[in-house]
Amino acid sequence: MKKYFLLSIAITVFAYTSNAQRVSSNKHTDNMNKSGVVTIDSSSVMQMIEDALFGGYVSVSNLQVTGGVNSIGFFSIDTNVIDMDCGIVMSTGNINNILQPNTQAGMGTDLNLPGDANLDALIPGFTTRDAIKIEFDFMSQDTLMNGTEFVFASEEYPEFVNSSYNDVFGFFISGPNPTGGNYTNQNIALVPNTTTPIAINNINDSLNSIYYHNNNSGQVIEFDGYTSKFTLPLTIVPDATYHFKIAISDAGDGIYDSGVFLKSLSFSVPLDTTFCSFDEQINPNNTSEVQFTTSGIKANTKYLWNFGDGTYSTEQNPVHVYNKNGDYSVNLHVVSSRSKAHAVKKVHIEGITSSVADKKDVSMNVSSTNSEGVFEIKLDNNSVISTLFVYNTSGQLMKSVVLNNTVSQIDLSNLSKGMYILNVVNSTTTLKAKIVR
Hints:
There is one protein chain. The protein has three helices and 31 strands. It is mostly beta strands. The strands form seven sheets. Strands 4, 5, 8, 10, 11, 12 and 16 form a seven-stranded antiparallel beta sheet that branches. The chain is globular and about 65 Å long.
């Protein structure tokens, strides 16, 4: 029998009991428009999606994200769990609740947002809610795109299978069909070798169970169950414009959440494993800092580094600073004009001896100045050279600066307005602060 629990995550509070009742208190404190759709227009979110999903030599335009303000983000995960290391995660609730041990009998955030008509059509008799959608126009010079890979997961599993809570995922395409005619919002996210859409009642422990994974004691993701990784190979007409919509929603109510993991560089040319490698060099004077250098890679290449600590970079040869000792799986994904490749290495970090939490004689103060986008950083007792790293909320490195003085000014006026995380790192400590540009 499951115990009572109280889930309070600043957005909604609801209870779950052993007789499987679903009760919502409707306490919403999230900053969103409850009367209609929220269009997410943050440039940092759009850049994150472009960096993580789209490979080289494809044209993407009119990118739009609609849904909850905390319903989409970049993820980095152990590849042994869902057979992908990083990409974009979408949730019908709050993505910040996903990457943690599965210790709750039910997890969710009722956003009181609309569903989606195309998703409604996939599950007749159900009404969708809390939809999160990515839409864009797409063009490629190739006829065969690299198969888009995804994993569907949900808190509705397993208690609410074959109930009125039938959360659903869809991948819709509109544009010319290479075999003739046109696609019009054609869903291609289907149970393999069927015409059955991806939904709670269609993949579970009793139906299509070969594709279902129980996660009741999972240590990496919170969802109670998830599907196998599915691949959607897509044949298109070269240089023709297509409209894609990737959407997931709750059904029946918005209480318990579902999510979908989209593998990095899903929209790119086919995989070529004959190239792609890199080397790493740990700075002997600062063992938290690692220089990564690519080798054997063709010209005109797009790079996506997953450093294994929840951050990424699109630079060719980045320098990355880790905040904790440990072993990290570093993944490099590359896309050239006609091929895509992937390499992975383990990096061992040791020698980080202290942090802001246990270093009482070192502190950092950040304040705004009279100049727009310029901040003043004061370091007490800065006896060694420090490096400032500026990350956006998706974990992407936006800027790095060497700090030689106890008082420095950092110009962030070229960055989009929003929240950023500052990391000041030297050989003895790591200091963190959040700012709003």
